[in-house]
Amino acid sequence: MFDNLRNLHKLKKIQEDFKKERLTVEKRGVAVTMNGNFEVENIKLNTELSLENQQDALKEALNEARENIQKTLAKSLMNSRLGF
């Protein structure tokens, strides 16, 4: 039982630390900043691109940011030694 409580505490700490993570991805001058909760915190557009190119670059940046946040979370959980 104490091991479960200890693991729960470790998991809560990982979750709190992960909320503080920030990741910025830039594609063709369009930048997206996402936090560890997968919330978009900032978007910077490139007005030199057409609307369609901005939309494509934004989609690429959002997908890459999400993917990188997921990988970072997975590494954190694997390094935690909680049995994941």
How would you portray this structure in words?
The protein has a single domain, classed as 2-Layer Sandwich (Ybab, Chain: A). The chain has two helices and three strands, in the order αβββα. A three-stranded antiparallel β-sheet has the order 1-2-3, covered by helices on one side. Helix content is 56%, strand content 20%. The protein is α+β, with helices and mostly antiparallel strands and 84 residues long. The two termini are 18 Å apart.
In short:
This protein is α+β, with helices and mostly antiparallel strands and 84 residues long. Helices cover 56% and strands 20% of the residues.
Number of domains: 1
Proportion of residues in helical segments: 55-70%
CATH topology: the name is: Ybab, Chain: A
Order of helices and strands: HEEEH
The fourth-level CATH homologous superfamily is Nucleoid-associated protein YbaB-like domain
Backbone CA Rg: 17 Å
Spans of at least 5 consecutive residues whose pLDDT stays below 50 are none
**Proportion in β-strands:** 15-25%
In DSSP terms (H or I, runs of 4 or more residues), the helix count works out at 2
For the record, give the distance between the C-alpha atoms at the N and C termini, rounded to a whole number: 18 Å
Which CATH-level-2 architecture? Answer: 2-Layer Sandwich
Total strand segments:
3
Which structural traits does this protein have?
single chain; 84 residues; alpha+beta; Ybab, Chain: A; three-stranded antiparallel beta sheet; 2 helices; 3 strands; 56% helix; elongated
How are the elements arranged and paired?
Layout (H helix, E strand, L loop, with lengths): L1 H18 L2 E6 L2 E6 L4 E5 L6 H29 L5
Antiparallel strand pairs: 1-2, 2-3
